[in-house]
Amino acid sequence: MLKCREVVDEADQFLSDDLPRHRQWRFRFHLLICKHCSRYVHQFQALKDATSFMHRKASDEEISRIMDSIDD
Questions:
Q1: pTM higher than 0.85 for the full model?
Q2: Distance between the two ends of the chain, CA-based, in angstroms?
């Protein structure tokens, strides 16, 4: 059985579908029986989704608005 520490260490690989199949099954089984790890992986996915949105390139309008507020 996977330990919680292993889930933390491999969460990114799991969410990116980069774990070998046998490891994915063990990971999924652990998530079924461990509410703490299940919550962790859910929150980690939400964080990954949020940071990809946050790192988009600013539009010219956004840059102008920020520069105007700095000048004031």
A1: no
A2: 59
